[in-house]
Amino acid sequence: MNNRWNARVPDPVSSVCETCGLQPAASAMLSPSPRLEQRRFRDYRSAVQNYLDLTKPRITWLILMSTAIGYYFGLGRTGGFSFRTLFHTVLGTGLVASGTAALNQWYEREADLKMRRTEKRPIPSGRVTPPRALWFGIALAVAGAAELALGVNWLSSALCALTLLMYLFLYTPLKQKTWWSTTVGAIPGAMPPLIGFAAARGHLTAEAWSLYAILFLWQFPHFYAIAWMYRDDYSRAGIRMLPVVEPDGESTARQMLYFCLALIPISLLPNWLGMTGAIYLAGALVMGVAFLVITARVLSRRSILEARRVLLASVVYLPMLYGLMLLDPPRF
After folding, report:
1. What CATH topology corresponds to 211-332?
2. Which of 6, 46, 96, 286 could be cross-linked to 144 through a Cys-Cys bond (beta carbons 3.0 to 4.6 Å apart)?
3. How far apart are CA 113 and CA 127, in angstroms?
4. Quick one: pLDDT at residue 46?
């Protein structure tokens, strides 16, 4: 009994931590628990991911790829490659493209809430408030335009600004009014090669416009395929895409076919202008015909499955075409 009652009990006041010399209670107060730190890190990572989702990275990388192709051909015979200029070009264009995507999601937040495809985006899902998304988009766009103006040249900055203005103030509002919005949207959508070309050369030539024309025509089968696949979503949101206005899909299939057909001779322009050689000529012709055959099947089999195949073909076609351009040294 005496031994039990006389056993030494640690004194909470005098006990200290051997490693840091602090009392346990004081040590716990000065350093947050591991669980709290993990939760803070998860919250921070989630917030970063939410704002990253506003920038639509999967679309932005395609924009930057087209910009880099424009820069490459803008160098011309003189060469004069500058990593610094290319870095500022890609960074500035990426910032403006990301800002445009964020502002577009802010503008279309109510429509996005009505579509299953977009209802989980940061704004309709409540992960980012509309005011924060608005200022985030503005900040990115202004920073990108300034980056291009100060780090590259005023022409590339002006083209980027024009792209943003046309996309937000022409294309986006027209989506609720007419299916011609796709055509209007293709105009700023084909700007990235011009931006890259202007960054390298300081002015635009026929070579730049040939790259613009390829990207302009490529967009129609690509976006009409998306519109076909999600026409029910677009209809619920009141977005008047062609497959919504004419549900039988015949007009959409014909539009896709016509633009694919026009893309074949236009894709050969870089060769005719001396920008590429025989490898590109043969490859572009083969890929153009293959793209046309896949698209032609939509006319006879008007289904979501065929539309998805066109979408996949378009996603493969453009990077491969750019790859062929790079494989063939420019002759100019």
Report:
1. Four Helix Bundle (Hemerythrin (Met), subunit A) (1.20.120)
2. 96
3. 13
4. 79
Residues 6+ apart with CB under 8 A from 284: 267, 268, 270, 271, 321, 324
- Is the Cβ–Cβ distance between 280 and 329 less than 8 Å? no
Which run of H or of E encompasses 329? none
- Would you list the DSSP string of 50-118? HHHHHT-HHHHHHHHHHHHHHHHHHTTTT----HHHHHHHHHHHHHHHHHHHHHHHHHTHHHHHH-TTT
The structural domains of the chain, with segments of one domain joined by +, span: 51-204, 211-332
Written as one letter, the residue type at 149 is A
| Predicted local confidence at residue 280, as pLDDT | 95
Per-residue pLDDT tens over the stretch 88-115? 999 999 999 999 999 999 999 999 999 9
Q: What is the pLDDT of residues 259-282, one digit of tens each?
A: 999 999 999 999 999 999 999 999
The helix (run of H) or strand (run of E) holding residue 234 is helix 231-237
Can you tell me the distance from the alpha carbon of 193 to that of 204, in angstroms, rounded to the nearest whole number?
Answer: 10
CB–CB of 141/99 below 8 Å?
A: yes
List the one residue out of 244, 266, 216, 224 whose CA is nearest residue 111: 244
Residue 16 predicted with pLDDT over 70 = no
Confidence of residue 44 (pLDDT cuts 50, 70, 90): low
Residue 78 pLDDT > 80: no
Angle of CA points 112, 113, 118, to nearest 5°: 50
**Rounded CA separation 59/97 (Å):** 9
Backbone angles phi, psi at 45, to 5 degrees: -65, -40
Choosing among 1.10.357.140, 1.10.10.10, 3.40.50.720, 3.60.21.10, the CATH entry for 51-204 is 1.10.357.140
